[in-house]
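During the reporting period the student researcher (J.K.) took over the structure-prediction task from the postdoctoral fellow and processed the backlog of single-chain submissions. One of the processed entries is reproduced below for the supervisory committee.
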Amino acid sequence: MIVRPQSNWFRMLLVWNGSVLPSILPQLGVILVISLVALLGDGRVFGERIPLDTEPFPLLGVSLAIFLAFRNNASYQRYLEARQLWGRVLIATRTLTSQALAYLPANRLDYRGFAFRVIAFAHLLRHQLRGSDPRQDLERLLPPEAVDDLTQHAYRPIAVLNELRHTVHQAAPDGQTLWMLDAQLNCLSESVGGCERIASTPIPYPYGVLLHRTIYAYCFLLPFGLVHAIGAATPLISVFVAYTLFALEAIAQEIGDPFGRASNSLALGAISCTIERSVLELCGLPMPAEARASEKYRLD
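J.K. obtained the following structure tokens:
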């Protein structure tokens, strides 16, 4: 995820890192070539004039804008819900750790081991959503036998929650304490389920295909509809319109996968680091360095 300080209006015009422009430059190059062909050939292809004028394009453009708005709204809703779920994970892990420290007797609970398993849960959830290998994080948090056991599970965050639930059940002095701690474990379990639902249920494929084809058809034909109306300005206007449409589609694709590694996906690494720091601080243990944006303003 790209995180940057607030920029003034001029720097926003020139920003490169974090924008989708690098990913759509090839498409804009194609539109520029088509526009130059239309301009130099006076709207003709192989000697035949393509009978297009500007009238149909505003009507099609309005329909395309409505469809793009729907696609972007759907993608942003997925992104927002994913961030809210990880916010719940952050709150629940803090609360669970704080309650365990306050309500569970020290002679019945290994606070350090409990805290490290709570931290391991957050890292395992991140790795599961991204399909990455969690072993490096697990090896610095858990004993070797626990690492080997967890790597055998298909749903590793749930396996950790199951262990935490057994630990809480054995250490809780009474039913009310058990109920309070179990509520936080249920919240974590629900958050895992919500993240899995988003990750395994993309926006229906036909929507993306239809939008993709319509955008490209519109942008490929636009220069031939503009060339007799605006002449030499055809390449400039065509590329600018294409930039708007291609960029909106690219943004929707990026934020529609909130758990990915694209520039505008969620910074799950930074959130996991925040959870780790919070839990360790509650336990009075040394904390790792805070995750900060680099010189390129990127957070994992």
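The committee noted the following: The chain has one domain: 20-282.
J.K. will present the remaining backlog at the next meeting.
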